[in-house]
Amino acid sequence: MIEYFVENASSFAGDIDNLFLVITLIIGFWFFLTFGILVYFIVKFRRKDGVKAKYFAGEKHSETKWTHYPHYAVIAMDVVIIAVNIMVWVNIKQTLPPRDNLVRVIGQQWTWSFIHAGPDGELDTPDDVATVNDLHLKLGDTYHFELQSRDVLHNFAVPAFRLRQDAVPGRTISGWFKPTKTGTYDLQCAEMCGYGHGIMGAAVTVHSAESYETTMAQIQNGTYESHYQKRMGTKTSLPSNTSQVDEEGSFAVLLASIF
Amino acid sequence: MSQAAAAVQTDTHAEHHEELSFLYKYILPVDHKIIGMQYIFTGMIMAIIGGYFAYAFRMQLAFPGELVPLYGLVGPGEYNMLVTNHGTIMIFWVAMPVLIAGFGNYLIPLMIGCDDMVFPRLNRLSYQIFLVSALVLIASFFVRGGGFGGAWTSYPPLSSVAEYSLTDWGASLWILAVALEFVSFLLGGINFVTTSMNARAPGMKMLDIPIAVWFIVVAVILFMASVGPLVAGAVMLFMDQRIGTTFFLPSGGGDPLLWQHLFWFFGHPEVYVVLLPTLGIVAEIITVFSRKKLFGYRTVLYTAFATGGLSFVVWAHHQFIAGIDPRMANVFTVTTVLISIPLAEMMFSYIATLYGGSIELKTPMLWALSFIAAFLIGGVTGIYLGASAMDVYFHDSYFVLAHFHYTFFPITIIGMFAALTYWFPKMFGRMMNETLGKIHFWGTFIPFNCIFLPLFFLGLAGQHRRIYNYEHFPDLATQELQNIRIFATVSLVVMLIFQLVFIYNFFVSMFKGKKAPNNPWNANTLEWTIPSPPQHGNFKDLPTVYRGPYEYSVPGREKDYWPQNEPPEEN
Amino acid sequence: MSMHGPIATHRSATGVPSGRLAIWWLLASEIFIFGGLVTCFVLFKLNGTPGFEDASLTSTAAGAINTFVLLTSSLSIVLAHAAIEKGDRVKSFRYIWYTIGGGVVFLGIKTYEYTGKIIHGHVITENLFWSFYYTMTGLHALHVIGGMVIMALISFDIRKGHNYQRVELIGIYWHFVDLVWIFLFPLLYIANF
Questions:
Q1: What residues of chain B lie within 8 A of the CB of A19, using their CB?
Q2: Cα(B353)–Cα(B336) distance, integer angstroms
Q3: With helix as H, strand as E and coil as C, how does chain C read?
Q4: B247 touching C (Cβ < 8 Å)
Q5: What are A201-227's pLDDT values in tens digits?
Q6: What is the mean pLDDT of residues B416-425?
Q7: Is B387–A23 a contact, with Cβ atoms under 8 angstroms apart?
Q8: Whether pLDDT at B430 is above 70
Q9: Which residues on B lie below 8 Å from C51 (Cβ)?
Q10: Contacts with A81 from chain B: Cβ below 8 Å
Q11: Mapping DSSP to helix (H, G, I), strand (E, B) and coil, where does residue B538 land?
Q12: Which residues of C lie closer than 8 Å to B, measured between beta carbons?
């Protein structure tokens, strides 16, 4: 379901989407069952003249089994959810697979800086490539990231990768991802960071190998055109004056355009 | 019976009282009923402010950059201030004062059959401190830099360093207001617990206490046990802000994550602090309007205890990706998913109460049933967020927002209207208009779902929180998503307009409504055995209790209810 | 026995008088407040945060004397309670004021300590240890002052023959204040543990 809204562009995005599906099936079953019974009881036991309500305390086993057994079933399904979840979590947050590439992500009020490791694969060496609000990645490389903040809490969030991680000042937090689809995606700051939190976006571009080399070269020789700037210019498809929408008339139109 | 109780004066409370002046009756009361109403009215006024803020920021989201009618321009700093204070106000200055301090104060002495709280003057002081806290918060909007804008969670270093937050005194007045509110509720809690434990009517055993009273008391205990570390944290935050200590600043050896732990150690039990009173109110209403004994009184009680206890070991699910050790996340994911279990059993018990009932869908019952329905959605969507890997995607997204509005809105707003429509006759001696009540109900409940159900989908689309204008995020700036935002905002405006129906009904009924009898709902609990509104001192003759509160439709009896204080029939 | 107040105040379904119940609940919430501060202190210390070796700079002698002073004042409030149980208002009044005197000595020593430290540059913002030192002892001192004020008011009340039960209640509170100090003393005055 998430794929309907957002690209699936990393190696673990599918795991998260599957987890979502598992949880949805389980809780969906419980929700519709419980909700259905609630509505059924409200309808079936409406007050009727001459019909008195039943009287029972819900203490005898013959009565409590109706809540106890579903209760055990809930426990069993919770265990399933926990198990699947932990498997996915361990993969994303507890393991660091061997890396093909490295990038340092620095958040500050209110910009993102990226230090790409360069051909030698190490940071803090002369061949590093630094950008602002533009992260460039090579398709299929397993990346480690070193996440830092210069001031307050920020959060390195790339919905297309299904990735979020808080950036904490005073620390470097490590993680990994592997881009699996070329394209340019939103990068967000997903932790309140003050006045400019709402403009603290960036662009993540996943390149094929040649496109990546070309882009890195352009950045270094000054011919690079920021993907971030380009996106901000053309991609906003909102009408600038939205006050034409009035509550009575366009309601049906709104509904139609959403679904 | 203990000796102390036997030595109680048998003369009534109302014997020697000069008529109190207006000042001492309404401004400086010690009467729990008036204090309760002070809390309720203050809470309702704060709800208007909190709702107004929501209107303003949702209008900005739907029509970015446009002047919001009846408000003005909502820029980035203004937006942050609005969302921060909307959340803060709704939790601390609406949910808690109305449900706990307001109805708790009004109902507890009545429902346990005594004439007031054990410490009436402490009760008055609690309200006064609460009022000051509200005024301090409102003052924070008018200082230079404006109101605090660092989100209701107030994470440092944003909240502790003025250069980062740009709301220097706003931030300090905000934390001061919150701290004062905590003190007020700590004091009030002493009254509630002591009164419920000690001042019960003779014959009222522990298992004869109405669930509403039990749950308010458990809530207050949870509050007292969880808020301490955050009071410490608030002192530390205030000092970081004003004196330059570095409790939460890494450059000074401090740790931003410490605040998060202190905040959420309180913050998670807090949601049960506000949930339990509403659950208690719902229990009273569904038993009365289905004429049925509560299913599994003891089970309901034990699940409340279990939920309350477990609530102390789930807090870090708010911090899965905050930089805590990832292995810790597994512990908290297990506890968080498990806490759904006692709560589910409680919901099943409530629904089982309806089985075989004789259900009358009067306005209070509509509210109580809609609470169960909406809270079911809130509850199940919490499972997604308790799963740590899922939270990697959903953290700080609109999915979280939709989840907690599907819990908080039923708790605060539906709970408030359920309680108000149910106990209005007792409080004001008149009946509310039933037709207007139903119109208000549907005009609130349907738009509520129209606001928040779509927000789940925005969360699925990766939309993050606390952003004043999604035009800056091309993947989120599509027409489809914007239409959802507009739809939600329009629904909010519709819902707000319907609240006028309630305001009209509430105030007109107060003066012109049909006079209410003692027991318009034919209920069992003790507050319905005395006149509406109750006289000073509550009970002309203090009651003795002979049975539990839910003896409805007892076979072999002519009446389908059996007040707790009616002596047993001689057979 | 007070004749004021509602009947609720005099009921006791649990057998424990409401005043005592209330004090225990108050203390429970206070334990969480001080417990929160103490836990944070300990966590920072265990984490190796710089500055916590400054516990060796606080005067162990002053801290020890203050511990003794508070313990003694706890004794005198117990004696005040014993006296009022027998109805001896005069003796109880005297012992309450001995307790208040103990509080004065405690605060005097703390003032001397604070002054000395501040003059030497150990201000609250110097490092996290000193931030905690002043915050924890400061909050504790506020509780001492509050206790002393309430104790004084109670002493005048019992001298007029009212509310004897409150001597025990303020005694319980004072023991708590004492107990908090007994936790603070080793944490703040003894560096290596």
A1: 387, 389-390
A2: 27
A3: CCCCCCHHHHCCCCCCCHHHHHHHHHHHHHHHHHHHHHHHHHHHHHCCCCCHHHHHHCCHHHHHHHHHHHHHHHHHHHHHHHHHHCCCHHHHHHHHHHHHHHHHHHHHHHHHHHHHHHHCCCCCCCCHHHHHHHHHHHHHHHHHHHHHHHHHHHHHHHHCCCCCHHHHHHHHHHHHHHHHHHHHHHHHHCCCC
A4: yes
A5: 999 999 999 999 999 999 999 898 899
A6: 98
A7: yes
A8: yes
A9: 253
A10: 337, 383, 387
A11: strand
A12: 5-18, 21-22, 25-26, 28-37, 39-40, 43-44, 49-51, 124-125, 127-128, 131, 135, 139
Which of B114, B194, B262 lies closest to C7 in CB terms? Answer: B114
Please report, rounded to a whole number, the percentage of residues in chain B having pLDDT higher than 70. 96
Q: Which chains touch C (3 or more CB pairs under 8 A)?
A: B
Domain C38-189 has CATH 1.20.120.80: yes
Instruction: Give the distance from residue B552's alpha carbon to the nearest chain C alpha carbon, in angstroms.
Output: 26
* pLDDT of residue B427 exceeding 70: yes
Provide the terminal-to-terminal Cα distance of chain A, rounded to the nearest Å. 15
Say what angle helices B363-386 and B415-428 make with each other, to 10 degrees.
150
Domain ranges of chain B: 30-529
Interface A:C, ≥3 CB–CB pairs < 8 Å = no
Here the tokens at position C181 are 């100090």
Question: Which residue among B5, B224, B246 sits closest to C11, beta carbon to beta carbon?
Answer: B5
- Which of A156-160, B106-110, C48-52, C170-174 has the weakest average pLDDT? C48-52
3-state per-residue secondary structure call for chain A: CHHHHCCCCECCHHHHHHHHHHHHHHHHHHHHHHHHHHHHHHHHCECCCCCCCCCCCCCCHHHHHHHHHHHHHHHHHHHHHHHHHHHHHHHHHHCCCCCCEEEEEEEECCEEEEEECCCCCCCCCCCCEEEECEEEEECCCCEEEEEEECCCCEEEEEHHHCEEEEECCCCCEEEEECECCCEEEEEEECCCCCHHHHHCCEEEEEECHHHHHHHHHHHHHCCCCCHHHHHHHHCCCCCCCCCCCCCCCCHHHHHHHHC
Helices of type H across B199-325: 211-242, 256-290, 297-310
Contact at CB, B4 and C12, closer than 8 angstroms? yes
Question: What residues of A are in contact with residue B323 (Cβ under 8 Å)?
Answer: 166, 168, 171, 173
Q: Do C128 and B246 touch (CB under 8 A)?
A: yes
Does the pLDDT at position B139 exceed 60? yes
Candidates C8, C28, C139; nearest CB to B199: C8
Relative to beta strand A183-189, strand A202-207 is antiparallel
Residues B329, A2: C-beta atoms closer than 8 Å: no
> Is the four-CA dihedral B321, B325, B326, B328 of positive or negative sign?
negative
* Mean pLDDT of the residues in chain B: 94
- Asked if B399 and B460 touch (Cβ cutoff 8 Å), the reply is yes
A contact test, residue of B464, B479, B482, B558 with most A CBs within 10 A:
B464
* pLDDT the model gives residue B418: 98
Look up the CATH number of domain A101-234.
2.60.40.420
- Cβ <8 Å between B157 and A152: yes
pLDDT tens column, A167-194: 999 999 999 999 999 999 999 999 999 9
Interface test with C, best of B114, B198, B535 (most C CBs within 10 A): B198
B397 CA to chain A: closest CA distance, Å? 8
CB of A38 within 8 Å of a chain B CB? The answer is yes
Q: Which residue of A has its CA nearest to B150?
A: A194
From the options 3.30.200.20, 1.20.140.160, 1.20.210.10, 1.20.1250.20, give the CATH code of B30-529: 1.20.210.10
Over 70: is that where the pLDDT of B290 sits? yes
